[in-house]
């Protein structure tokens, strides 16, 4: 039986006036909740309200059956850990020392770590897979490594509830996938509950057990594919020149199609990149166009060739 950990009831959040109203949600222990929406929709305001950094207009937030508006800062720090998109200033201390700061809600700054706390730190470094970095200085790490350190620090805080606000916004694509893979693994292995706000909607839908979508002052929560379908998320995020390609599962620029080609290919990397070069340069793949054939590492255009990919690219550029 699922054990609920977070209840949000009729919540209204904002500043001088409400930005998002009618927020109702139930989150179970061990869930990974994705939070998405356009800029200015109220995602960050909702997170600040959950963290107690922004007063709410109305409604209630119950964590572990306790209304969080009654909590002081010390209580919040023992119940909710947070990972932001990046540190404003990276301290010149070791990774181990930075991770150990997660124990501050339970101890005095000057007291020495006891055995149980050291074990928590060691376990967190192992869970995140950064034990080999423990003696490195934090200000010498890459952005991806530093974000993993901050996740380990949140684990050391030993809360059941972790909020992440755009944890991959400044990372390259490889580290974005690493961080989401890590969060997914931690949610499964630790039974901790995660709320992750991100613009990486594809990664949220792939990894989240529940999706929160904030749009035009309204809040929607449910099964990721259900919310994506009912709220037409990809259509709402599309623009005149940027559309979501359902076949490829990603957003793509929509280039004006100027010429049709009939593409006949084998299954190869060259075939993929030839098609990519054609589409990027305004060619429409069609059964009615001029013939482009790719076979055995060579390209033939209108029966002429063979061409290398560079030669083919130089050939099609004037036809745009």
From TrEMBL:
<dbReference type="InterPro" id="IPR050153">
    <property type="entry name" value="Metal_Ion_Import_ABC"/>
</dbReference>
<dbReference type="GO" id="GO:0005524">
    <property type="term" value="F:ATP binding"/>
</dbReference>
<dbReference type="InterPro" id="IPR003439">
    <property type="entry name" value="ABC_transporter-like_ATP-bd"/>
</dbReference>
<keyword id="KW-0813">Transport</keyword>
<dbReference type="Pfam" id="PF00005">
    <property type="entry name" value="ABC_tran"/>
</dbReference>
<keyword id="KW-0067">ATP-binding</keyword>
<keyword id="KW-0547">Nucleotide-binding</keyword>
<dbReference type="InterPro" id="IPR003593">
    <property type="entry name" value="AAA+_ATPase"/>
</dbReference>
<dbReference type="InterPro" id="IPR027417">
    <property type="entry name" value="P-loop_NTPase"/>
</dbReference>
<dbReference type="GO" id="GO:0016887">
    <property type="term" value="F:ATP hydrolysis activity"/>
</dbReference>
<protein>
    <submittedName>
        <fullName>Iron complex transport system ATP-binding protein</fullName>
    </submittedName>
</protein>
<feature type="domain" description="ABC transporter">
    <location>
        <begin position="6"/>
        <end position="241"/>
    </location>
</feature>
